[in-house]
Design brief:
It is built from 23 helices and 20 strands. It is α/β, with parallel strands linked by helices. The protein has a 6-stranded parallel sheet with strand order 3-2-4-5-7-6, sandwiched between helices. Strand 6 (about 135-140), helix 6 (about 145-160) and strand 7 (about 165-170) form a beta-alpha-beta unit. The structure holds thiamine diphosphate.
Length: about 575
């Protein structure tokens, strides 16, 4: 016999999940009891966040690194509502999460029980609240339903479009004795199906045969297929650009790379898309939202477009495409390459394409002797000095803009796991802080660098202490400009009022030290040059770099202003 909560943990173990991120409380105590038992025998264990949104960000970071579902939990009532921002972020970024919340026991619902939140006449309704930011949200109202609801939820977290799913489990259901071990082979059920629309692949091949010059747009859904996608680009001599959330899948020095197309992207990418000789655009694995379509740019969204994706919702964004190819991206490209090679037919008139430098804005701002230190130089040096297996997470605010434009890995090794991670669409401040903790737990061997702002740190910085407790090598690089910088620059560029953007000057080095985390203040390029980054990246624990950047430097955020309608 085991508790129902033990069965939940048994399923997590079956699919290789090692951590449940959350904050305990009365409404979820049986789950924590089960986690304690599991931890003692080396199974999945709890990681206690300082705020539930931090727990959801950690689960997000864990899922992106492992490819498995990230799991977070909270007690009923406020614990659950605290989770919502992090869960909504995962929903908008298509990250699979299992979210477990507690409830008072069933017989107490509707009677004004403490933190009751099942919408039973009294109390709020967290099941309903999660419905709009998950792919499945349900109350488990009987222990007999738990197993099928759990398996059903976990399947929905992965297919057809990944995202969070939520189960709210009342205390008595969590505690119910269960006489079973897992009945389903969940690991097998979660194996991704590979159906491919064969007729569409044939049509794609025909398009390629007719095309004279092709540009590929590589999106965030391309991770597991990046090798075959680049194989096609090289085979047909097509240049490629990446969306901001896919920059981390490619080498910035690939000869066919033309930069980032979208928010904070590169002029060379826009030029590649605008090239009048291009008669075919392959957009692969992208939702084509504001940030990753360059504000629904006409040079991309026109009849030259073929959109290839596993997700139907993404394909709905491109009604103007001449062809939609639906299917698991890896399977589509493997089938396509196979067809092309089997027939030995001409794929594309070979075009003499020479590698070109990605054009960055303001290259002169990457100077080594600047004081105060320029964000452009900071990005260049982080990319140059961090090892090839580093995972960078760039937070909402100027960090994401600077990183997308200026951060490049010097020593890129092909990988299906992105070296740069960002959050698109929902974009909450502080995502990278919790995300970095989850990433480091998922892969303790790889150094993790979180690039964030002082505003984000003041909002979510408490999660750094989790990295300390867990002895994780995470470098928190704080762009300290005593302001909500992106908003400040946005207001300035728009000629709006300068309002609500000042932050108090904070010494994050002292703050870190008060938490037991070593910190360094970086004021000049020279301070950065003098830093023993190798030692910091080997330190088994977090480090804070409080970087007093040049606050007057304007981040590459023009697209945002254009879409807000405030561009001058
Ligand atoms: C939770 C949340 N609140 C507000 C915003 C709106 N917003 C976007 S960027 C930004 C400023 C971020 O400031 P900071 O973290 O200091 O980074 P900086 O831009 O100064 O580098 C704000 C307030 C947001 N994206 N998320």
């Amino acid at each position: 016999m085991m508790d129902a909560a033990d069965l939940v943990i048994a399923y997590l173990e079956q699919i290789g999940v090692e951590y449940v991120f959350g904050v305990p409380g009365g409404g979820i105590e049986p789950l924590y009891n089960a986690l304690a038992r599991s931890a003692r025998r080396g199974g999945p264990r709890p990681v206690v966040a300082r705020h539930e949104t931090g727990a959801a960000f950690m689960a997000d970071g864990y899922a992106r690194e492992t490819g498995r579902v990230g799991v977070c939990c909270a007690t009923s009532g406020p614990g659950s509502t605290n989770l919502i921002t992090g869960v909504a972020c995962a929903y908008e970024n298509e990250i699979p999460l299992l979210v477990i919340s507690g409830q008072p026991s069933l017989h107490l619902l509707g009677r004004g029980a403490m933190q009751e939140s099942a919408g039973s006449g009294t109390g709020i309704d967290t099941v309903a609240m999660f419905r709009s930011c998950t792919r499945y949200s349900a109350l488990v109202s009987h222990s007999d339903q738990l197993e099928s609801q759990l398996v059903s939820a976990l399947l929905s977290a992965h297919q057809p479009t990944p995202g969070p799913v939520h189960l709210s489990i009342p205390l008595d259901v969590q505690r119910s004795p269960m006489a079973c071990t897992p009945a389903y082979d969940l690991a097998r059920l979660l194996l991704p199906p590979s159906p491919v629309d064969d007729a569409a692949v044939q049509a794609l091949r025909a398009q390629l045969e007719r095309a004279h010059r092709v540009v590929m747009l590589i999106g965030s859904g391309c991770g597991e297929a990046i090798d075959v996608i680049l194989d096609l680009a090289e085979t047909i001599g097509a240049v490629f650009v990446v969306t901001p959330d896919a920059k981390g899948f490619v080498s910035p020095r690939h000869p066919l790379y033309r930069g980032v197309f979208g928010f904070a992207g590169h002029q060379s990418a826009v030029a590649a898309m605008n090239d009048a000789h291009v008669d075919l655009i392959l957009a692969v694995g992208s939702c084509l939202g504001e940030f990753n379509s360059n504000g629904w740019c006409q040079s991309l969204l026109n009849s030259r477009l073929v959109h290839i994706d596993a997700c139907e919702a993404h394909l709905l964004r491109s009604p103007m495409a001449r062809l939609h190819v639906r299917g698991r991206i890896r399977a589509v490209f493997e089938r396509l390459l196979d067809l092309m090679r089997r027939d030995g037919g001409r794929a594309l008139a070979a075009t003499a394409l020479k590698p070109v430098e990605t054009l960055v804005a303001d290259p002169d701002k990457r100077v080594p002797d600047a004081a105060p230190i320029k964000p452009q130089y900071l990005m260049r040096e982080l990319g140059r000095r961090c090892p090839s297996d580093t995972r960078f997470l760039a937070d909402t605010g100027n960090s994401i803009a600077w990183a997308i434009h200026h951060l490049d890995l010097h020593d890129y090794r092909p990988s299906t796991r992105a070296w740069l991670r960002v959050t698109m669409n929902f974009a909450p401040m502080g995502w990278a802080i919790g995300g970095a903790v989850g990433t480091a737990l998922a892969n303790p061997a790889a150094p993790v660098v979180c690039i964030t702002g002082d505003g984000s740190l003041l909002m979510n910085g408490q999660e750094m202490t989790v990295a300390l407790t867990e002895k994780l090598t995470v470098v928190f690089v704080i762009l300290n400009d005593a302001a909500l910088g992106m908003v400040k620059h946005g207001q300035r560029l728009a000629g709006a009022e300068q309002v609500g953007v000042e932050l108090p000057p904070v010494d994050f080095c002292l703050l870190a030290e008060s938490m037991g985390i070593p910190g360094h203040v970086i004021r000049t390029a020279g301070d950065l040059d003098g830093l023993d980054l190798d030692a910091i990246l080997r330190h088994p624990g977090p480090t804070v770099l409080d970087v007093r950047i040049d606050k007057e430097e304007v981040p590459p955020m023009g697209l945002r202003l254009k879409i807000l309608g405030t561009a001058k």
